[in-house]
Amino acid sequence: MPVQCYENVSKDVKKIIKIDTENTSYVIGVIDDEQFLGHIYYGAYLNDYHLAYALRIQENPFVPSQNNGERLSFLDSFSMEYPAHGLGDFREDCISIEMPNGSTGLSFSFVSLNILEEKPRLSGLPSTFGDKGECTCVEIVCEDVHTGLKVVLLYTAFEKADVITRSVRIVNAGKAPLYLTRVLSACLDMDDKEFEVLSLHGSWARERQIKRMPVGYGRYSVESLRGESSHQEHPFMALLTKGTNQEYGEVYAMHFVYSGNFKALVEKDQFDQIRMVMGIHPEDFKWKLESGCEFQAPEVVLVYSGEGLGKMTRAFHDFYRNHLIQGTYRDKERPVLINNWEATYFDFDKEKLIQIAKEAAQSGIEMLVMDDGWFGNRFDDKRALGDWYVNEEKLPGGLKALADEVNGLGMKLGIWFEPEMISPDSDLYRAHPDWAIAIPGREGSLCRNQYVLDLTQREVVDYVYGRISQILHSANIEYVKWDMNRQLSDIGSAYLPADQTGEIYHRYMLAVYELQERMLKEFPYLLLENCSGGGARFDPGMLYYSPQIWCSDDTDAIERLKIQEGTALIYPLSTMGAHVSACPNHTVGRSTPLETRGHVALAGTFGYELDVTKLSEKEKEMISLQIAVYHKYNELVRCGDYYRIASYCENHFYDCYGVVSKDKTEALYTFVQVLGRPNHRSRRIYLKGLAPEKKYRIEGEEEINTGDVLMKAGYLVQNMWGDFRSRLIHLTEV
Length: 734
Ligand code: GLA
Fold this sequence. Notes:
Blueprint: E1 3-7, E2 13-20, E3 24-31, E4 36-44, H1 64-67, H2 71-75, E5 95-98, E6 109-116, E7 135-144, E8 149-158, E9 163-172, E10 178-191, E11 195-201, E12 209-214, E13 218-224, E14 236-241, E15 251-257, E16 262-268, E17 273-280, E18 287-289, E19 294-305, H3 308-323, E20 337-339, H4 341-344, H5 350-363, E21 367-370, H6 398-408, E22 412-417, E23 421-422, H7 427-431, E24 451-452, H8 458-473, E25 479-482, H9 504-522, E26 527-530, H10 540-543, E27 548-550, H11 557-568, E28 576-577, E29 580-581, H12 594-601, E30 607-609, H13 617-639, E31 641-646, H14 648-651, E32 654-660, E33 666-673, E34 683-685, E35 695-698, E36 704-706, H15 707-712, E37 715-717, E38 725-733
Parallel strand pairs: 20-21, 20-30, 21-22, 22-25, 25-26, 26-27, 27-28, 29-30
Antiparallel strand pairs: 1-2, 2-3, 3-4, 5-10, 6-7, 7-8, 8-9, 9-19, 10-17, 10-18, 11-12, 11-14, 13-16, 14-15, 15-19, 16-17, 23-24, 31-32, 32-33, 33-38, 34-37, 35-36, 35-38
Helix pairs in contact: 8-9, 11-12, 12-13
């Protein structure tokens, strides 16, 4: 049984709750007369539950029932499972409130425990799921007797996946309304093991770059207050024992299934104890909770690996592929698409698109995606967001005529949308200026010339959905790129009462989730690709709705090596929107061989973002070849196990990663020589993930080697002439 509860373990330890997956254990204790919920252990699987000693309650300052005169010292050092604010635990806490009398402190005692065989959906939020038999849940209810506030901590053990998820529901069982001013979703207290912290940072066109540093005393956080998970930081944090690499070392990772403001923080305290927390960012958050009402906080995914980062990566990949991503395309090869953005920007009409589609169809491209500019008066990025009516000047006959013609070429049609936004220069804004998020009476700050719609208003959500639905019904549209091109600011509402302004950020996210949910329910065949000025909302929340997300506006093959390495650290390759674009690259001005651009994009969903009508015959031939290669390897890339072999970010010369099929009969490694080096011999790379006893042939080569040899003695990659050159190394079992 993956969840066990042991009663009256000792005088002070009333309960031990042990949650197991195949290779990990998570242990919680209920202690003392006040029934404090303490964290005992998370890590490699334990075959016993006798761990009460790890709570250190026999040490000074002792539990409050024995030494209430040092209550503060107890609260400030005890490993809390869900630490509360204001009564003596001075470390980063998970929950705080504001009562009508202005007080903020609270303290929780265990009340009950409930084991569930099915994982409940988290109301209004994306969350992971599992069939009966795949996961077991335990709900632990605690109460603050003073206020009547209850916290319901939900843990789910996904046994085979080796993942534990956590979320929190807050119930106001008291008589008076109160305000929640902080509700984080997860906390992990442990002793320091000389940890390093790994997080992902970036900027527009430079998303998810891996950074590690030692954990020092004090608090270190990564966070977003931008109303989106953001380009700049990522809702992910991992603690690594010193020296952890792909194969060795312990990793404790947390990842947030949420797309809005977040905070992830690690703290090292006076006793060399570590606390790691994750949740909705408490700043600008204040939620009014009426008596009898509930607040559901989003889910955190916990992964522990005792075998380095590689094992963590593969655990996340499998988990997201099996327990987060949904829909018809989850397990299917995605159509090779051509997107007209970098080919035309706003300067297109039906004729131009059809020219592109005709040429693309001949190369084997399967879908035309019409990007920004097809609606209202949208001739540039200064206007018309919100006016979701087809611009018939550009598209005579509307979307139907375009779809029919594209379909006639044997291709699918997809379109771009940015439903959350409103341009001040739009018919929509002229009719409803109070539909934009703004501080009443203050002119809002523009970004990319646009405002954000106030999706906390029901009327606005329904209007936006009505437009999406009407557009999607109007023609055979089989793909949507859902974009979001600015951060939230100027938080205020003409609609919500003043004391609920602190709810806007989260209500906004709930509305976005509702819109995507409604759309996919009504159009279940749609392939949805989320996007946010490139990859500012590449997060597990969005992944619940869209099996792929646009990784970055930076399509340069070399920059993409870094972005895709950071992204693939947690996300399956099947989720990474990756396109081959024109050279010199529109973001960095670099020219790379078409072959290399193709090889790098193969690690993602694969598509094109260039004007195929302007290519030479040789380039067109190369594209047909690349598409054949995509079809040949996509199942392997989509479903296989990912191994990182070398990192260009670390060695500054070359990059290498591979995907191995689950049965280890096939593997594909990609090697990119970023910089050619003079007088250099062939490079030996040590392949990973193969079966030592199996014999493999490398495509195009005669020799047969065992997996053992290829992994231990390595494979020689011939030095290639010049910079930015690449090679695919394909192995099959013989
Ligand atoms: C964002 C996207 C791009 C493109 C433009 C259109 O920047 O990331 O791919 O769709 O918007 O305005």
